[in-house]
Write the structure tokens for this entry.
Amino acid sequence: MDRAAGLSVRAKLTLSYAGFLMLAGVLLLAAVWVFLLRYVPERALMVTGSMDAPDHGVFPVRSNLLRVFAPRAAAVFALLLAFGLVGGWILAGRMLAPMTRITDAARLASTESLSHRIRLPGRKDEFRELADAFDGMLARLEAHVAEQRRFAANASHELRTPLAISKALLDVARSDPHHDAGEVVDRLHAVNTRAINLTEALLLLSRAGQRSFTREPVDLSLLADEAVETLVPLAEQRGVTIETDGDVAPTTGSQALLLQLCTNLVHNAIVHNLPGRGTVRVSTGVRPGTVVLCVENTGENLTPEAASTLTEPFQRGTERVHADHAGVGLGLAIVKTITHAHDGTLTLTPRPAGGLRITVELPATAPSAVRR
Ligand SMILES: Nc1ncnc2c1ncn2[C@@H]1O[C@H](COP(=O)(O)OP(=O)(O)O)[C@@H](O)[C@H]1O
Ligand SMILES: [Mg+2]
């Protein structure tokens, strides 16, 4: 923003210091003057010894007094003014010194590097708090930019992989005309499907992140039931049993996105589970002010540190990427983005016996608002 030049804060502080000093000086001198008027003349008369004519000397003594007092008072004022201006200028400069560092850091951040920090030394005060808040903001911004870069690099890499595989398949088919065309077509089809899934997941992620969806009253328990119903065949195929336990969970949001959230969570709970003997528990409920969806599953042991990274895009667990159920690694990133877009919180807790408990909390709405 272009602003017209104004008086600096240092100058304003200096003027106010000097102003206050002058005001204090005026009050002090006024007090001295009143004191002199009240007590000095009588005493002065008594000292001269004219006891028999006490009314005589008062006025001449007063005007004398003023003549003596006024120039001294003016000198004191001039001294006070000079002292206030110089002292104020030095004091204000010292007080405002941290401000220069903060401004420099802000300029640097807006033009070049986000890695600069102010790190103002000293004990806590208003300036230190501002500097610390600013440092915190810079750290967040820097992390965010780094995360975006990492995401773009990972996404490009993931998108290139199916294209590179397709190219290799086509090269083989071209160089060897007797190669089984049906096999090539099948493999190309599989690779292509994966690429489409990946692109759709990326589109979904950006759509959820933009928060531009329409919000309507929804019951999370119905969406969880719907997700479970569609995934029952997959669970049966993998020998995983699903238990559901749903209280009405009224909230507001995008039906499609919240269904996607439930589907991703239940899908993960089925595929990242113990094959043949796994269980999944899906429950919904209401807490004061929030509705809760909890998806719990048996599975391998996870450390809390490992669990906390799983929501990052393209972060996959220990399984091989090319296992048959290999997802694109965006399932939990999408869940997190959808949760945040609905002003909710997502918690991943490893279960002591292995597997994961994932809890999504969303703001609750009055149950009557939900169309069933
Ligand atoms: N319910 C779960 N139980 C155990 N591990 C899980 C669960 N959900 C996700 N994970 C781990 O988190 C990783 C990331 O999940 P996700 O983002 O959905 O990617 P994907 O499923 O495509 O691998 C998975 O690879 C898996 O290792
Ligand atoms: Mg997944």
Observations:
- The pocket of adenosine-5'-diphosphate (ligand 1) is lined by residues 268-269, 272, 297, 299, 310, 315-317, 327-333, 355-356 (CB under 6 Å).
